[in-house]
Amino acid sequence: MFDTLDAVRTDIAQRLKRGASDRKSAFHCPAIATADADARIMVLRAFDEDAWTLRFNTDARAPKVAAIGESAPVGVLFYDAGAKIQLRCRGTGRIEHYGPIADAAWEEATNFARRCYLGDGPGAVSDGPTSGLPERFEGVEPSDEDLEPARENFAVLLVTVEEADWFYLSNDGHVRAQFLHGKGRWVAP
Ligand SMILES: Cc1cc2nc3c(=O)[nH]c(=O)nc-3n(C[C@H](O)[C@H](O)[C@H](O)COP(=O)(O)O)c2cc1C
Predict the structure, then answer these.
(1) Where is the Pyridoxamine 5'-phosphate oxidase Alr4036 family FMN-binding domain (predicted)?
(2) Which residues partner with 180 through β-bridges?
């Protein structure tokens, strides 16, 4: 079923598209690795098939934002246990704080989702367990006016995939393919 590199390339694109649009997809929550040897789960929000670019939403105050800045190597690791497919992506990440893509991502978010950006920044130390949100917004959807200060805490992470490593785990023999700037080759698993 994965006899050609074109079939594998199509499989990768379809999984990434579905990962962005279907919250039940195993590709919806990949691990994002930065060059400081840190990794974290993020929700895949969009996949641009023409530019092979992944989009994630983030708090602009998060440590990963400082680690990535305008350009840095980023790894993105996906695993679909049901399909037995691992996808390792390597590329260049950049944070867009204000700009057309970040503005559109903010516009498409619900006020409930935007609420996360009204609280303390990720990693802020607290005396006890905390959501970081101001008390009046606990469990409450803020109004557009309430959310005015939140926009400056919102940014997007864009990762342009330069290398993709696809691995299919199979009893009949694992299969592995790599794509470097779109050019594919088979490799031993
Ligand atoms: C299921 C799940 C989804 C998450 N989605 C996001 C996300 O889309 N964006 C994000 O910045 N953090 C997300 N997080 C939180 C991050 O994993 C991480 O803890 C946080 O962003 C702070 O990361 P940093 O300290 O590396 O900057 C998610 C966590 C989980 C468990």
Answers:
(1) 23-95
(2) 163, 183
Of 102, 16, 108, 104, residue with least CA distance to 54 = 16
Q: What is the pLDDT of residues 4-23, one digit of tens each?
A: 999 999 999 999 999 999 99
Question: How many Å lie between the centroid of ligand 1 and the Cα of residue 177?
Answer: 29
- CATH code: domain of residue 67: 2.30.110.10
Ligand 1 atom nearest to CA at 67: 27
CA of 140 to the centre of ligand 1 (A): 21
- Number of structural domains (the chain) is 1
Q: How far apart are CA 62 and CA 51, in angstroms?
A: 26
> 11 C-alpha vs ligand 1 centroid, how far in Å?
26
Residue 121 lies in a domain: no
In a domain, 122, yes or no: no
User: Is 164 contained in some domain?
Assistant: yes
Could you tell me the sign of the dihedral formed by the alpha carbons of 104, 57, 11, 165, in that order? Answer: positive
* 147 assigned to some structural domain: no
The tens digit of pLDDT for each residue in 40-97 reads 999 999 999 999 999 999 999 999 999 999 999 999 999 999 999 999 999 999 999 9
Rounded to an integer, what distance in angstroms lies between the CA atom of residue 189 and that of residue 81?
17
Domain that holds residue 12: 5-113+154-187
